[in-house]
Every structure is written in C-alpha cells, then in structure tokens.
C-alpha cells in the first residue's frame, strides 16, 4: 500500500481507504463493520471515512464502537466525518453550514464516535445561504480548538473552493486542505477538468468517492439487479437507472477484457484506475462485506501493473479518446 500526502499537508493517507455510506448501519452491523475495517487495516489502510448523515448517526456510532473493539492506537488511523445535511429537525440544523449547526454537529459527532477529535472534517456540500466567511471562520475555529485536525469540502465547485481558500489566506486562518469529489471511470470531469488549477494553486488534496460508481464497475449489474445489491435496497431506487444503464454496462463488459489481461477482477481494475491520477490522495472504497474489502484491497497491487498501455486501452473503451 502506498501512502500519499493529503494535498500539501503533512498528513499521509493510504492510497486506498474505506468508507461507510449505505453499508454501516444498513447492510453491515458492528461485528461485520469491525471485521471489514480490520481487513482494510491489515492491508495497510489508515483512513476511514464517515458522515454525520450516514444511517442518521448510526454509522458514526458503529465505527466508534469498532475502533474500541479493534483497540488500535489513535495515532495509527485517520478518521473523518462530514457535515451539512444534519440529523435533527430545525431551521438551523438542516442543509446548512452556519456556525450554530457546525459547532453542535461536530460535538455530537465526537460523542457518537466516542473520540476526542476527528482528523478530517468536511463541509459535505456548499450552502448557498450562509456566507462562505462564516463557514471558513467556523471550520478554522474547529481546527484551532483541536476538535479536528484538517478541514475540507465535498462537492463544492471550483469557484466556491477558491473563495474559501482566499478568505482563509486573507485572514490567516487554517485553510481547507482537501476536497471529497466523486471520481470513477464514468465520472471524471470535475476532478480532471474543473479542479485542474486548484491542485497547483492551493495544493488541494482529494479523497475521492464511489470508485465503482456504486457497484456498476464491479460488473454485477451486467445481467440485471442482483438480490441484496445496492440497487435493490429500499431507498436507493434513484440509483437503479444508472446502475442498469445498457450503454454503461456494455462498456463494463468490454473493460473485463482489460481486467482479464491484468489477471484481476473488474472491481480491482476500477479502483486501481482511480489511484493512477496523481491528484488523488486516497480512493475511498465501499463494501457491504469483509470479502469485498479483501478483494478490493488487491487493487493497490494491481495499480503497480496498470501501465500506460492499459490506461490508453481503458480510455479507448470509455470513449475518452
Ligand atoms: P463504490 O462505488 O466502490 O461502491 C461500493 C459498493 O459496491 C459496495 O457497498 C458494494 O455494494 C459494491 N461492491 C464493492 N466491492 C465490490 C466487489 N468487489 N464486488 C461486487 N460488488 C462490490 O463506493 P461507495 O459509493 O460506497 O463510496 C465509497 C465511500 O465514499 C462511501 O462509503 C463514503 O465514505 C464516501 N462517499 C462520499 C460521498 C460524498 O458526498 N462525499 C458520497 C458517496 C460516498 P453492494 O454489495 O451492496 O452491491
């Protein structure tokens, strides 16, 4: 497993990490979560991603309990949470990045985890109503008070990220260090084009999400929706059309020829592909079982064999050149 600096910060994160969206608290109980985390950790993963909103707070509770069961040194892992949607009803607690919400949401998250501090905190989306100054000052204070060590954004547009950096710079505040965007073979524009200037200008790091496009790139949807898969879950109907899209599944079938020549699975190929972008600090993988984690972690080794010839073949299949 390789370790990359998170953007220009000194923090090193494993090139593959593990997140808990959909899975912890919905498909995976505490025992299976701890097992999945242990498989990842043993493979070299040091970063675990979470969010306040995942399973209404249950995902943070499960991960916190898993950390205790596993008994790891706090110094040996990096844990994140993300804030914006809120989990309590109220005009100041939903879809906001105001100061009142952020301070109480981070405190409540620490309680659920049973931790003294989070390593990374993210503004889970941008908030068009709260002035960016208010959010930047609050994130700075959360870092200055050691409730978190680094802060960043998730799915902000380039202009919003630029504004946040510049406010922080002007007022000598802790700057955002990382962004968490979607990035996979079917979703490239933001990371490869829109953010292009931000890597050099601000040293922005990336913790990217959905390397398998929610499972599509594993090939499991080629012949329909398998029982128990994400697309079959109640509440995730909105994903079904994209996961069963015939054109995308045709490309996945073609990608299988590349995976076969690399002697790896489609999932390993798709995850390894994400690590090849030098601006990606860590690829957050997701898994509904420890077995999937075991398979996916091999992607770190596959990445060492995924050379330019294979990358060109993949681009050709995806239709990017
Ligand atoms: P993926 O795109 O990799 O999808 C993971 C899902 O694909 C698994 O839960 C599983 O679903 C299926 N899968 C995984 N491995 C395999 C395999 N080897 N074979 C077959 N199926 C497999 O990642 P996620 O969408 O889960 O995102 C990863 C993480 O990124 C999240 O946990 C979260 O931490 C973060 N994230 C952040 C977001 C943000 O807005 N900042 C948004 C979304 C995610 P199943 O078995 O149920 O079909």
UniProtKB/TrEMBL annotation:
Keywords: Ion channel, Ion transport, NADP, Oxidoreductase, Transport. Pfam families: Aldo_ket_red. InterPro entries: K_chnl_volt-dep_bsu_KCNAB-rel, NAD(P)_OxRdtase_dom_sf, NADP_OxRdtase_dom. The keyword Lipoprotein does not apply. GO terms for molecular function: oxidoreductase activity. Coiled coil: none annotated. GO terms for biological process: monoatomic ion transmembrane transport. Residues 15-317 form the NADP-dependent oxidoreductase domain. Belongs to the shaker potassium channel beta subunit family. This is Voltage-dependent potassium channel beta subunit, animal. It comes from Ferrithrix thermotolerans DSM 19514.
């Amino acid at each position: 497993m390789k370790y990359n600096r998170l953007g220009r910060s000194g923090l090193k994160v494993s090139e593959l990490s593990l997140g808990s969206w959909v899975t912890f608290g919905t498909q995976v109980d505490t025992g299976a979560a701890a097992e999945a985390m242990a498989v990842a950790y043993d493979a070299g993963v040091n970063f675990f991603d979470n969010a306040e909103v995942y399973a209404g707070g249950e995902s943070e509770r499960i991960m916190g309990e898993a950390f205790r069961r596993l008994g790891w040194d706090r110094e040996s892992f990096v844990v994140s949470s993300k804030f914006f949607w809120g989990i309590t009803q109220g005009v100041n607690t939903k879809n906001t990045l105001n100061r009142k919400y952020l301070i109480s949401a981070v405190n409540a998250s620490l309680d659920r985890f049973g931790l003294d501090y989070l390593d990374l905190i993210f503004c889970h989306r941008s908030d068009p109503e709260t002035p960016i100054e208010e959010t930047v000052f609050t994130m700075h204070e959360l870092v200055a008070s050691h409730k978190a060590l680094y802060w960043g954004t998730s799915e902000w547009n380039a202009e919003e990220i630029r504004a946040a950096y510049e406010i922080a710079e002007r007022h000598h505040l802790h700057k955002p260090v990382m962004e968490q965007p979607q990035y996979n073979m079917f979703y490239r524009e933001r990371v490869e084009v829109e953010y292009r200037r931000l890597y050099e200008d601000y040293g922005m790091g990336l913790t990217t999400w959905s390397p398998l496009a929610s499972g599509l790139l594993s090939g499991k949807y080629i012949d329909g929706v398998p029982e128990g898969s994400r697309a079959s879950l109640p509440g995730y109907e909105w994903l079904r059309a994209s996961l069963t899209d015939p054109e995308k599944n045709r490309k996945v079938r073609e990608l299988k020829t590349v995976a076969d020549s690399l002697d790896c699975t489609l999932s390993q190929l798709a995850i390894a592909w994400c690590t090849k972008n030098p601006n990606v600090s860590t690829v957050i993988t997701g898994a509904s079982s420890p077995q999937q984690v075991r398979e996916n972690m091999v992607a770190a080794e596959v990445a060492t064999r995924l050379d330019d010839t294979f990358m060109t073949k993949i681009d050709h299949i995806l239709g990017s050149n």
